[in-house]
Amino acid sequence: MDDVSSIFANLGAWNWLILAGLFFVLELFAPGIFLVWFGIAAAIVGAVALILDVSWQWQFMLFAALSLVAVFAARKFLRSNDAQSDRPLLNQRAQQHVGKSYMVADAIENGRGKVKIGDTLWRAEGPDAAQGAHVKVTGADGTTLMVEPIKA
Fold it and tell me: Which positions of the chain have pLDDT values less than 50?
């Protein structure tokens, strides 16, 4: 038991700075940005321990408090600065076709058929339309396109 208390009693600034460096290195391998905030807290505690003679108990309490402050501040900051994509529908392929017109490849009968987009056939639902007719995509449900005939 005496060995454990002596380890804590001898905690110094360099141990906190090494811990901060370890958090920063681990951040490189972890997804997201989570460990960097603990690294910042450890670096601040290390700087405080270098300047002031602070007991190890106060160092741990300061680290805990700074970690909480850093994490909550980061959450608030990162949520308020959501990056806006220049291609918001990148992973919503069907939604990308809304408002565009295409040719019916397989006649739409009983509300179901297929339209040709590029070299791909997409399922389509809407009013009946003959093969070769032009339809406008008005919406999407999963990978099924909702279409309406274009009036000539």
Answer: none
